[in-house]
Design brief:
This protein is α+β, with helices and mostly antiparallel strands. Helix content is 17%, strand content 39%. It is globular.
Length: 143
């Protein structure tokens, strides 16, 4: 079984740079995981003054869910399925991320209703622990 930290997301995710917003998986289990993303100056979600748009936090959370799900499916020799965000609930934003910030997304899958997966995410500054955002989102997995 491959170590999640060595899993090449650039070869397994649908998104490619500059839209890929997960650099690596830090930890994973069937229901939980942590990912890492460093905000760079070529990020397409940056404002002109170098601030990461808040919508990017939701995208990081969704891509983190996908990255961990793809990792698990590849370990079981299953073909990953495509999915997309269908709902965002109670997502709160506490502070803005900027170029060179390192974002850790702590993810927990809380429920599954058929093809809909419900997860919560906390996006934290890897350098000083400040909370960027947290909330719930739902992913629809295509059959």
């Amino acid at each position: 079984m491959k170590n999640c930290k060595d899993f090449d997301l650039s070869k397994n995710m649908i998104h490619r740079s500059p839209m890929l917003m997960v650099d690596k998986i830090l930890e994973e289990s069937e229901l939980n995981g942590k990912t890492f993303f460093k905000v760079t100056d070529d990020c397409i979600f940056l404002t002109f003054d170098g601030v990461l748009q808040r919508a990017a936090m939701i995208e990081i959370a969704a891509q983190s869910f996908a990255a961990i799900d793809i990792f698990h499916k590849r370990q079981k020799n299953l073909e990953p399925k495509k999915g997309f965000v269908v709902s965002v609930r109670d997502f709160k934003f506490f502070c803005d991320a900027k170029i060179d910030d390192e974002i850790v997304c702590e993810l927990k899958k809380v429920d599954e209703l058929g093809l809909i997966h419900i997860a919560v995410a906390r996006l934290i500054d890897n350098k000083n622990g400040r909370l960027f955002a947290d909330g719930e989102f739902r992913i629809y997995e295509l059959p």
